[in-house]
Amino acid sequence: MSKLPNDYELDFLKSCSREELAPIVGAILGTDDKGNIDRSGRFSSQLDKKPMFVTHYPDHTKYVDEIIEEIQKFGGNTLVNAFRGMGVSYHEVLCDVAEKMKVNCRKTQSTVIVESYLLAKVLDVAWEKMSEEERKKILDESGDMWGLKAGGMSAAVLLRIIQAGGFKSYQVALIIANAVAKAILGRGLTLAGNIYVTRLLAVLTGPIGWIITGVWTAFDFAAPAYRVTIPACIYIAALRTMKANERFADRGDPTESAK
Question: Considering the entire predicted model, what is its pTM?
Answer without folding.
Answer: 0.87
